[in-house]
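This part of the workshop introduces the protein records we will be handling. Getting from the letters to the tokens is the skill we practise here. An example says more than a description, so a record of this kind follows:
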Amino acid sequence: MSSDGAQHGAQQDGAGSGTDGGRTVRVVLVDDHRMFRTGVQAEIGETGRTGVEVVGEAADVDQALTVIAATRPEVVLLDVHLPGGGGVEVLRRSASMMADTDRPVRFLALSVSDAAEDVIGVIRGGARGYVTKTITGTDLVDAIFRVSDGDAVFSPRLAGFVLDAFASTDAPPVDEDMDRLTQREREVLRLIARGYAYKEIAKQLFISVKTVESHVSAVLRKLQLSNRHELTRWATARRLV
């Protein structure tokens, strides 16, 4: 790691110094190079100094999903190129954990690649930021704290890729049907489409089964669908599953 700093907004007191009111951010490292994981652990893993606690590591997609589900960290440092489908596959299969409003798992891509397609792919997949492996340890700790707070963080050069992509005429059009749904209704929709039972959705979102039923009814009404099977087909066609 060298001098590529993270681009972000105003600094938060203590972020990246381990002095943020004694706050600790729990992190999982996902990278297929063991020596790199060891280096990152040595750079940021002294919790008393940095405020970062590394609670797990993984070297491929399946390991990553297992470790993330078991530890439920605040932030996952995610390499883009991984055995088993890459970082985008980890993001796709972690969608329900990212959507958890009470304990969201947030992802920060940390990769040697600075290719525009890699950056855009993981951001569209749900990552909150993207920094390259030339970032300094201090800036990486700061980026972790920023992402844990819900901010977006990018290495300076990469921010332009994201702005260009979302400003481009090739960007996907606004989905007026989705815009009719509230954030909670979208969360319920995605979980229904993935085959979750009402009880499972209620447990995951910390709401009652009756509230889940109300949200499903509202979604069906707004989308003019008749049942959950039509809803699943609708969600699948929009690649929401």
Residues 2-19 have pLDDT under 50 and may be disordered. The two ends are 36 Å apart (CA to CA). Residues 16 and 142 are 4 Å apart (CA to CA). The longest helix spans residues 209-223.
